[in-house]
Description:
Helices cover about 30% and strands about 30% of the residues. By secondary structure, the protein is α+β, with helices and mostly antiparallel strands. The strands form 5 sheets. Strands 10-11-9-14-15 form a 5-stranded antiparallel β-sheet, with no helix packed on it.
Amino acid sequence: MHEVNADRTLSELHQPTGGDFGGTKVDNEFVNLLVKIFGAPLYQKFKRNHIEKYISLMQEFETKKRTFDGSRRMALQFPIELGEMYLEDVDQTFQSALHETPFEGKVQCIADKFIIVEELAKTFFDDTIEQIVITADNLLKKVPNMNSIILVGGFSESPYLKSVMRRRFGDMITIPLEPSQAVLNGAVVYGHRPLAIAERVCKYTYGIGRMMKFKPHHPAHRKVKIDGLDYCDGIFNKHIEVGTKIRVAEDAEKAVVHKYFPTTTAMKQAVLDVYASPFKDPMFVDDHGCQLVGLIKLDIDSHGDIYSELLVKMMFGGTELQVQVTDVKNNKITNASFGFLG
């Protein structure tokens, strides 16, 4: 969700959301139908032995997917090889076997055409479209006064998706002339104008795994002993919280610096584990939802000083998470970049 600023830059109003409900999910539903009809072993055998025919079938489905409007049946070229393999495996033609399946009357094979009636074809789309509608509804409740929903990407060419979205959201729906190209064109524009998105909203809570002196409230299984001292391992040290608004141009200067120290005086290499969590206050790096984003390794020489400081700051502007580590004692700066999750 974005707002257009007076200078024509964009500000995110809510952290990015979404899930497994795009065009690929529709493809998977079609594949599930094939598996239910022909069986998983035969389907995999067909895919393995006749990869060109399989690709051709999926490409044709992609074309039909982009033209299906929910009112007409879907007709695909039926791969002859799949029918022959089915006959060889079960000693029965695919057409006659259909009478013994739940898909009788819903799937037909006429000449060389594989025909799926509209009611069954709609089920390929329904769960995906329902999730899109629910997500959009929830976002509009969180951020009111929005006046446009723009459909982009290949799946936006689906007449069925467009009709459902228009029924639900009316005049708010806007569709570019070439929705498939809109994402690509946007990426090119963004490459030339990296500050086009002036303000972002952090999608995850980001932090670094660390040890600290063991305290009574820490779980016993996390206790580790180093040089005679008890530490709690795997603590999530939060750098920035999910939902935080970040001004991209100002982020590097305003990033909060966190201090880290060597675990032992003999430590020659520091390894910082960067984690992300969808929750505001994760306690440990293995809490539910936490994911390892990446590692930063740097050589250090604390000269026997356990209080030798490592200053760490995270910058969240642009398309990457940037981490800068400053070894104060040795006046050494290490930079690393990681792609944002999801």
